[in-house]
Amino acid sequence: MDLEKYLMTAIPAAIKAGKAILEVYQSDFDVEQKSDHSPLTMADRKSNDVILEALSTTQIPVLSEEGREIPYEQRKTWERLWIVDPLDGTKEFIKRNDEFTVNIALVEYGQPILGVIYVPVKNELYFAALGYGAYKLDNPPVDQLIVYNNTVAGAAGLLAELTAAADELPLSMDDSKPLTIVGSRSHAGPELEAFVEQKRQEYDRLEFISAGSSLKICLVAEGRADLYPRMGPTCEWDTAAGQAIAEIAGAKLLDFKTGEPLRYNRADLLNPWFIVRR
Fold first, then answer.
1. Which of 3-12, 108-117, 149-158 is predicted least confidently?
2. What pLDDT was estimated at residue 275?
3. Is 187's pLDDT higher than 70?
């Protein structure tokens, strides 16, 4: 499988989706409620449409937050699929705190093997593929990627340029820093507080960072944080891209109870509690 070509399908798709999101972000937008009472904006829809159009060229099925109603009887036959969150961190988007992302993952036999996370406001790009490595690129060439037409010849060349300009993950590790835990900005609860307090008893020095969306997983992948415990509801599209990036960067995303890596395209799309750690 040509993961370089798939990366160069997913990266421009995420960039284009981010541009569509920013157009809504800079306007007076309305907020709707989904059936589960979570918020939905026009940015979610526009981003989803952009990504679906881009990924349709691969002939690989897509599981998206906006397409969650696909029956498991249909999905279970998919050996390979894209898992997409067109706007991860809608609550952060609504609060206008800039901490929202576009997430695209490629999953094979339940394992995330490629991940792309784009942070539109900061113009930061995280990308990884099994056997290729994990990278963070500040200020990717947005205009070039928006007009990029993926071809076998062009994919390797442009990806090589992006990789050469990027920092490989993890970034330089500082063993002298305190134990650093990152937690949800919008979904903190008593379980997280108890977890952090327990770690305070175990470690002389501890720092806690709040962040939104999949940026929390990215902070562990970078090495800036050591632990991200999530003791609350998430779905597969919230974690698939981040898990690919974290694992390829040498971290782990594990089921809190079993200690096993999360698997994907399950009958129940709701994730168990999990922890990301170095």
1. 149-158
2. 97
3. no
Three-state DSSP state, 142: helix
Going across the sheet that includes 179-184, the strands are 206-211, 179-184, 227-230, 274-277, 252-255
Question: Cis omega before residue 140 (within 30°)?
Answer: no
Helices and strands in the chain: count of H runs, count of E runs: 9, 14
Q: Residue 11: helix, strand or coil by DSSP? A: helix
b/e map 267-278, b = 16+ CB within 10 Å: eebebbebbbbb
> Are 161 and 191 contained in the same domain?
no
* Tally of CB atoms within 10 A around 248: 23
Structure tokens of 180? 């650093």
The model's pTM is 0.94
Predicted local distance difference test score (pLDDT) of residue 31:
81
Q: Are residues 83 and 31 in the same domain?
A: yes
Residue 8 phi/psi, 5-degree rounding, is -80, 0
Alpha helices for the chain (secondary structure H): 3-25, 42-55, 72-75, 90-95, 142-146, 152-165, 190-202, 215-222, 236-248
The C-alpha angle 114, 69, 80, rounded to 5 degrees, equals 30
Q: Which of 146, 168, 190 marks a domain boundary?
A: 168
Determine the pLDDT at residue 41.
79
For residue 197, what are the CA distances in angstroms to 176, 191, 205, 206? 21, 10, 12, 10
* Predicted pLDDT of residue 185: 67
CA angle 107, 212, 240 (to 5 degrees): 5
Helix (H) or strand (E) holding 276: strand 274-277
Domain containing 110 equals 3-168
